[in-house]
Structures are given as C-alpha cells and as structure tokens.
Amino acid sequence: MKYSLKHSPKQPPNPSLPDTKPGNHEEPYHGLARLLSKAGLCSRTVAAAWIRAGRVGVDGQKILDPEARFPSRHAQITVDGQPLLQPERQVLMLHKPRGVVSTRSDEKGRPTVYNLLPAEPWLAPVGRLDQASSGLLLFSNDPAWAQQLLDPQQHLVKTYHVQIRPPLAPEILQHMARHSVLDDRPCLPMQIRELRCGGKTQWLEFMLAEGRNRQIRRLLQAVDAEVLRLIRVSMGQLILGDLASGQWRWLQPDEEALLQG
C-alpha cells in the first residue's frame, strides 16, 4: 500500500546518524509526527503511535521518537517500508450543526465534527466554527492549500446570517460596519445588512474579509445584542446551498475556483 506525502526530513539525534538539530538552515524543522499530519496522512496522535511502533523510517533509518525534528523537505519518509507520495487534494464541505465542536476529540466529551465525517481519508478542518455556530465548514488533506486559503492577505470573504435580539437600528449597524475595533486594532470594513425583522428579533447578514476569533459575537455583545443563531452560508462564491445540517459532500475540483478572495 502506498501512503501519501512528499515531505522529507533528515535524522534525529543519534550517535550513528547525522546531527539534525536546527542550526543555520533555511528550511524549518518540524517534529516527524507533525510532518506526517501536515501531509494529510493522519492525525498527529495517530502518527505518533505509528512512529513508536517502529512503522516509520527516514532516509532508510527507523525512527522511534515522534518529536525527532527534520527539515520539511529533502529526506525520504516511509511508512511500513512504503514511500510517502503527494496525495491528490481532496476537499470536503460539511454543514456543521450547532452543538458540535470543530476538533478531532474533546476532553469534555462533546460531539465533534469527526463524528459526522468518513473515517478515511484523514482530513483537517480549514478554519473553525465555534460550538454554538453552524454552517459551511471545509476540510482538506492538503495543509498548504488550507493555509494559503486562510492567509489574511487573501481577504477571502465569508458570509454569515445572524439572528439577534433585540433588533439594532440602522445607524448602529452602519457604525459597526465601518468603525469597529477589537483588541485595540481596527477591524477591516465589513458589509452588514438587515435580512428581516420580526418583532423582538432581527436577522442580519455579515460579510467579513477577515477572520478574527468570535468576531461577530464580540461585536454584537459590545452593543448589547444577544446572538440567537449564527450560520456561515458562504466562503467566497462557494455557497452552502441546500446541504442539510450534519451532511457533507466532496468539493469538485472546479469549485475550488469559487474560493477566491
């Protein structure tokens, strides 16, 4: 069986092997378990178990320390004697339900998004949605692609529909869209519009070109508005559509072009 990856580190500290402590190298050094995880092959926990079991080699030498550090390229990594090959990128779209956390496991025993996904291949979340939020969440086996997508310089616009109580006046929304500050740093201008208002509640649409931690919730809390629902409905031109809550589907290669800043 062939495994996937193209990253290749050098050797860990070992009297019979070259010294691999980071020095004046241009390449960054990473732990071997992290390299396997970043390759989209498995989680870091699983990678560490494989390494301790003697299943992983680097440059022909068996490595038993998951934290042994190697440069991120230019070495030959094997699992069960098979070379790691760069996998074809796979991207999955999930309609994350409320009440589910976006991590692999949870120390509090809360349900996670991985309870909803196929066991294989290993996919990492592309960004996060907090437990109380729902909507579009991507997963991929290509960490480099995911990192590029999430780069703040990309200004990928994400759209959210938010139900609040009580309704906010137009002038408050206009000020929030243009003059918000979080953590002593101005927010990028955003688009906020009312979708509908019914008595004591109001639905708003937020379009953000940045992704600060709990940004929408914190901005609304600052004006004494309670968030009842928060749903991510699109990323770039990729929309959640009619994908039901808790369901997922594979993204087609041509849909990746919709994820533009």
From TrEMBL:
Q: Which InterPro entries match?
A: PsdUridine_s_RsuA/RluB/E/F_cat, PsdUridine_synth_cat_dom_sf, PsdUridine_synth_RsuA/RluA, PsdUridine_synth_RsuA/RluB/E/F, PsdUridine_synth_RsuA/RluB_CS, RsuA_PseudoU_synthase, S4_RNA-bd, S4_RNA-bd_sf
One Pfam family here:
S4
Q: Where is the Pseudouridine synthase RsuA/RluA-like domain?
A: 91-222
Q: Which PROSITE patterns match?
A: PSI_RSU (PS01149), S4 (PS50889)
- GO function terms (MF aspect): 23S rRNA pseudouridine(2604) synthase activity; RNA binding
Please verify whether the record's keywords include Transcription regulation. no
> What PANTHER family does the record point to?
PSEUDOURIDINE SYNTHASE FAMILY PROTEIN-RELATED, RNA-BINDING S4 DOMAIN-CONTAINING PROTEIN
Q: What is the name attached to this protein's record?
A: Pseudouridine synthase
Q: Which organism is it from?
A: Acidithiobacillus marinus
**Taxonomic lineage from the root:** Bacteria, Pseudomonadati, Pseudomonadota, Acidithiobacillia, Acidithiobacillales
